[in-house]
Amino acid sequence: MTEGVIKSAGRALEVLEVFARERRALSAKQVERELRYPPSSTVMLLKSLMLLGYLRFDRQAKLYYPTLRVTLLGDWLRTGATGSDALLGAMQALAHRTHETVFLSTPNDVHMQVTHIVQGLQPISLNVRPGLLLPMAGTAVGHAYLSTRDDEDIAKLVRRMNRGRAAEGRLDPAAVVATVRAARRRGHATAWGVLEEVGAIARAVPSRDGSTAAVICIGGPSERIRAAEATLARELRRCTGIYFRARRKLGGAEA
To answer: Taking all residues of the chain, what is their mean pLDDT, rounded to a whole number?
Structure first.
């Protein structure tokens, strides 16, 4: 579990994420096996979520189902850039066309945090989980996000990242700005080996007011992603186009 997270809160959300991944009713044993929690803790978590109205229990089938209350928690976010049906639909189309894992991330302080994943269809595909934090500097998703900021803001963020770092581990603000400028010119950012043997290509999807940027990323084995960079970058641009056309059709006020 992520350091600094209260155990009970983290576990409750992890249970709901299991249902989001599996997209079906599950038994207590199946949840226990997925999360590797002690049986007694799993049962107590499921019972608590049931009493709070987030799960219902079919006693005859011994299966748990998420309730409409889970859906309504985030329903208000669907009109925003980071949670809209249009954006998730575009991601699914991108994963289908490329067969690679596609994920969405958003800025969280000086990190980028994975929020949604569409798993790739390749026999060997990138496997990431919601909640994963990635550095804002040195990653494709981070540089794609930073490409929506001006150079002065980028340098300030890098200086914040350097706080508390040993001298040998500090980032050069000018070097980060130069890398982001190159990504801005290309229209996409790339990174190789941030996660072992993984390559990534990312592109920002900013909101109309520019206040927030979601970043769509394609990731997979470095060699495969690098070889297909031009094609994947083209598909990323196409994905962005699908998203904006869908938003206009829906008449959404947010990008």
So the answer is: 85
Q: What is the pLDDT of residues 185-201, one digit of tens each?
A: 999 999 998 888 999 99
DSSP 26: B
pLDDT at 246 over 70: no
The Cα 199–Cα 190 span in angstroms is 7
- Residue 161: name the closest of 146, 150, 147 by CA: 146
**CB of 51 within 8 A of CB of 57?**
no
Spacing of C-alpha 11 from chain mean position = 19
Domains 7-73 and 75-250 alike in fold: no
**Prediction pTM value:** 0.72
- pLDDT at residue 67 tops 70: yes
pLDDT exceeds 60 at position 40: yes
Q: Which CATH class is domain 7-73?
A: mainly alpha
Domain residue ranges of the chain, discontinuous segments joined by +: 7-73, 75-250
Q: Phi-psi bin for 62: left (phi > 0), alpha (psi -120 to 50), beta?
A: left
E-strand stretches of 27-185: 55-58, 63-66, 101-108, 111-118, 133-135
Q: Name residues whose C-beta falls within 8 Å of residue 213's C-beta, 6 or more positions apart in sequence.
A: 81, 106, 107, 144, 145, 148, 204, 205, 206, 207
75-250 homologous superfamily:
GAF domain (3.30.450.40)
pLDDT tens, 172-185?
999 999 999 999 99
